[in-house]
Amino acid sequence: MAEFKTDIEIARGAKKKRIMEIGEKLGIPQEHLLPYGHDKAKVSAEFIASKRGGQDGKLILVTAINPTPAGEGKTTTTVGLGDGLNRIGKKAMICIREASLGPNFGIKGGAAGGGYAQVVPMEDMNLHFTGDFHAITTAHNLLSALIDNHIYWGNEQGIDIRRIAWRRVMDMNDRALRSIVCSLGGVANGYPREAGFDITVASEVMAILCLASDLKDLEKRLGDIIIGYRRDKTPIYARDIKADGAMTVLLKDAMQPNLVQTLENNPAFVHGGPFANIAHGCNSVVATTTALKLADYVVTEAGFGADLGAEKFFDIKCRKAGLKPSAAVIVATVRALKMNGGVKKEELGQEDVEALKKGCANLGRHIENVRQFGVPAVVAINHFHSDTDAEIQAVKEFVASMGEEAILCRHWAEGSAGIEELANKVVELAESGSSQFAPLYPDDMPLFEKINTVVKRIYRGSEAIADKSVRAQLQQWEEQGYGHLPVCMAKTQYSFSTDPNLRGAPTDHIVPVREVRLSAGAGFIVAICGEIMTMPGLPKTPSSERIYLNDKGEIEGLF
What is the mean pLDDT of the chain? Predict the structure, then answer.
């Protein structure tokens, strides 16, 4: 029985095919697969370029309710649905993000699905994988080094060291590095100044890699990065200190999507990894657009709940890449809905239909929000063995009352066999042609009004508030020609509000915007709301304490 095996034990027992066979299923010639061992490979830029202009398959987004400690299983459902579509005879691919080391050793654990709906090799994906994150970190920090070096050797561009906007990054949760002073130790080390670190997934370089269409576009976007300002407040770009070429060289291989497989030997692209609470939360445009040329159905996910990941998928990724999703799946669990209804984690195993009904307000809000983008949706109830028939029926009745359908899915325990009903429903929605996708706001709307639009229409807040300096900064960016950019909200994932403890479906709350950052290369404005941190910290008992090598040299505790 699946319940008695851990995810890592299931992954370890996978009957993987050689990656060249997986590529063959997609029509990728062997010479265009750059193998990393026998079970993963990068797809060449030449092959990707050769596929431009062909017909696209149907794009399916998997999103979810707000995450809780009870778990929702969005990635598991994404993988399961991809397997399920293949099972019913459709040519389907999966596109998901790479895992960050920070949460793996912190609180979240791995990110490759679970049970019998996983992408493998799971251990590699959750550790160094093909080195993409290291390349992104290195390219980012090369720019950091070049900025301080430029100042040290005479500061030809006139960088005002009080107005340097570029921080450093590392792919680890380390709160001690959020605010630092660098260049201490005397004249030989440069000019002391305040600085800080973000986690790599919050890096603008990560966002650029995930939004760039090819290497040429990548280099242009890297050159567009604003590193800081002169005393007259005019911007200085990465290309002004000749950083864009070398950064592109470091990212040459990282730009190529990674091909792996599910437990059922179906193809998956795993590429890019921005967080949805502090970045735009989607896998790379290159992976998604390439998959659409190779498969009839492409199942992708966006991070955290639909208020963050789906909103950014629609308003940033789809807007910028010209993507038109055909359908969406909203993942929920009975356990998570009960938590939204006020049940404590240790009491989730007990039936509580009334709390469940109360918690369904959170699911209802997400259904309404996805509708606002004109995309037809279905609810996937990710089954747990503790769910009762009465609880499952209550969710189905609630969703039906909103005019939608909820389908019970058992892919964690049964693989593709447990998700056939959902796969057939997704095909029905996608083939109906009912999607009337449109972003939430137009390009020409003022920046603060865009922020307010997301706050009011997605979060159901009363308004966004910001200091005069924040509003003035937004106005200045509009005057400099950046007013057409979308906004990327950095906010807690646990609530529609900025209070992580306020579950359910709160209304009329105020969303404070404490800081805004211009990501000119990526092509969006980041609005940092409430207490959200762009460098997370580790919990009191981090996951790393339970990760080790056993006597066989196998990894334990990673997932």
Answer: 95
Q: Does 279 fall in a domain?
A: yes
The reported pTM is 0.95
Question: Is 548 contained in some domain?
Answer: no
> In the annotation, is 145 catalytic?
no
Domain membership of residue 458 as a residue range: 447-529
User: Is 74 annotated in the active site?
Assistant: yes
Question: What is the CATH classification number for the domain harbouring 511?
Answer: 3.10.410.10
Q: What is the mean pLDDT of residues 435-445?
A: 97
- Which pLDDT belongs to residue 110? 67
Residue of 412, 448, 477, 559 marked catalytic: 412
* Selected catalytic residue, list 97, 358, 450, 491: 97
Query: 17, 18, 108, 193: which one is catalytic?
Result: 108
| Mean per-residue pLDDT, 344-372 | 95
pLDDT at 1: 40
Q: Are residues 302 and 418 in the same domain?
A: yes
Mean pLDDT across 297-314: 97
Per-position DSSP letters for 7-25, written without gaps between them: HHHHHHT--PPPHHHHHHH
Is residue 153 annotated as part of the catalytic site, yes or no?
Answer: no
Q: Is the pLDDT reported for residue 340 higher than 70? A: yes
Which one of 47, 129, 304, 313 is the catalytic residue? Answer: 304
Alpha-helix residue ranges (DSSP H) falling in 415-479: 420-432, 447-457, 468-477
Q: Tell me which residue of 295, 302, 288 sits closest to 266, measured CA to CA.
A: 295
Residue 523: the pLDDT is 97
Name the residue among 330, 329, 327, 347 with its Cα closest to residue 338: 347
* 3-class secondary structure, 357: helix
Q: What is the pLDDT of residue 39?
A: 96
Whole-number Å distance between alpha carbons of 340 and 334: 10
Residues 119 and 146 reside in one and the same domain: no
415 lies in the same domain as 461:
no
In a domain, 553, yes or no: no
Max intra-chain CA distance, the chain: 72
Task: Decide which of 432, 467, 501 is a domain's last residue.
Answer: 432
| Residue 97: active-site member | yes
Domain count, the chain: 3
Residues 73-95, mean pLDDT to the nearest whole number: 97
**4-13, 74-83, 122-131, 469-478: which has the minimum mean pLDDT?**
4-13
Length of the chain (residues): 559
Residue with tokens 């996978």: 14
> Catalytic one among 16, 42, 58, 74?
74
Q: Is residue 2 over pLDDT 60?
A: no
Report pLDDT for 108: 64
Closest CA to 132 of 42, 11, 218, 22: 42
Determine contact, residues 130/118, Cβ cutoff 8 Å. Answer: no
Residue 556's pLDDT is 85
Q: What value does the mean pLDDT take over residues 509-525?
A: 97
Residue 550 lies in a domain: no
Which of 41, 195, 276, 336 is the catalytic position? 276
